[in-house]
Amino acid sequence: MSTITVENIAKRFGETQAVKNVSFEVHSGEIFGLLGPNGSGKTTSIRIILDIYQADSGKVSILGGPMTNEKLNHIGYLPEERGLYQDVQLERCLSYFASLKGLSEDQIKERLPRYLEKFDLADHAKKKAKELSKGMQQKGQLIAALIHDPEIIIIDEPFAALDPVNTQLVKKLLIEQRNAGKTIVMSTHQMNQVEQLCDRLVLIDHGRVLLQGKLTEIRERFRTNAMIIDALDPLPEQLDGVARIEKQNGSYCLTPQEGVSAQDLLSALVAQGIKMNTFEVAAPTLDEIFIQVVKEGSDRDE
Amino acid sequence: MNKSRQVARYEYLHHVGSKRFWLLLISIPLGFLFIFGLSMLISRFSFDTRPVGIVDQGSLIQLEPDNSKKSTFFNPQIHLYLYPDASSARAGAEKKEIQGFVMLPEDYVSTYQLTYWSNKQPNSDIQEAITSFISRNLMASENVDTAVLKRINEGGHISLHSLDRSQSSDGTGWHRIVVPVVIGLLNFTVVMSSGGYLLKALVEEKENRTIEIMLTSVPSREIMTGKIVGNLSVGLTQIAVWALLLIIAGLIFRNRLGFLADINLSGGYLAISIALAVLSFLFTAALMATIGAAMTSSEQAQSVTSLMVIPMMIPFYFFSVFLNHPNGIVARVLSFIPLSAPLALSLRMAFIKVSPWEIGLVFVVIIALTLFVFWLAGVVFKRGMLQYSKRISLKEIFSKETRNA
To answer: I need a labelling partner for A136 at 20 to 30 A (CA). Which of B13, B63, B333, B371 fits?
Structure first.
């Protein structure tokens, strides 16, 4: 079931068309990647979804209809430009944000210590935000986004200031939330995190949608028939069934001749006495797909 | 559920719990007390309370000097001693028993010439004590009735009226400026401190990057309402504490500072002054909110708001204009400007009867201007608050995109 539906939204600021005919749907129980280069229109799209900005045209539906004050309590948001009140104790700041999301004092008293413990911030609860490291502040902001148990979680660069241990903690948490049926929209530049977490994604550039769909389908769509092999000895310049041989970081990327399948190529290599540790299909990384799609989009604009 | 209450509560407790608030709350009355006390001490210690001698060579003095009033710290008295001759008075002065003596010559009744012998200039209190004592004796010698004598000594009360009867004053009400000046000063302090808190709160939301979390939790109108109410309450707390201290001080010093007893506050006067002060605060608050949303740092905002002090202080600079021409063009124009109106109108009302239609018009104009600034604040708020690194320009404020944001 789609909890967020964005239909042809557009927004202009002066001469700049920030967003143009952007459409996508996000379902409950999935992590949805909102990707795009800097200034592509991601943040404007998020702000329109959250009703911070009014779209010039188009429509947004949240939890089955337009945004209402009540629905704000069901959304957890970690903005890109984020912060805490620097001169206020972490505990007090988070209590205030939680109260603004409709939690009662009793609920805050019950939940906040639990979240602080979970994020390893219990010992720092009485410290002012400015006394905390960037990573700690970010964890505090994640608590603010999650403490009211929202149905929709919108997070912008959630791993930006986190060390590997905390990155793992947040990833685990996001997966837990997804498994609990929550709708998660994640905007990030860290493609490896998108590959590990996102079920579907949309790629925006210059305010337009360039690509969207399931992650597995997108990778399949951009897949080539090239193979990567990790050979024990240097390869000869020519091999039967191989159209092109390229060296890549100590491995070889082999492009088979027309009509030669992966199975045929492996058999041919074995037959030619090539010893290897690995033989794998050269699926493009999301990074590569991202760069390729954005470049193609820019070329079309020119 | 309206969340402006939570926002107001947080703002109030945040500021009331800050060192800045307590410092301001305590330092202002302490500062006043210090200046008042210091001037009292200087005045008191420079006041010579030693008696003054009188040598009557013309046998005019029939009544004994009235030295029954005791000299106190707050109300020093000059007592008069009669001496039989100049040499005994001089001896008293040399022994410093008296600070000087006055000689009434035999021909005083025809010349009205007195000679005062002392090493110091006689101050006005000494001159008044001597002339009053001599007048009483002169009139006593002419058998003037005691009640008439008392009235002559007190002088007349002059009531002033303009020819068209539109203005009136009792002519002795100089003390009336005390109330408007106190209102003006309190209003200035509260507006600047509360407005300052509000401005700080808004700019901090930007500087701390918390505004986006706020906007996705609370509608912008409720954020604004909460912040204005919270910070107004901070200002009202200050004013309540200071007013309480003023009342306590007034009750303590009422008998010692004579003019305090003459202050008579009418309900209507107070109601109009307070209503104007509240409107002025709301206008300033909305203006501060607009500036806070448009600027990107506390420093930028501070430099713009310092300009707002000027209109608030103008009535103080033009004080003589208000005293001499309370219905003049300057005084009237300043009554219509929200920042100067609380002091300007209450000053005018202290001296003249301002017509009800003019008071009504002042309120209409100020309410209209306040509503306009609130609208402007609302327009700028959403757009400006999310513009972190660049301040919003006037052109942007009035652009279609901003109005639709």
So the answer is: B13
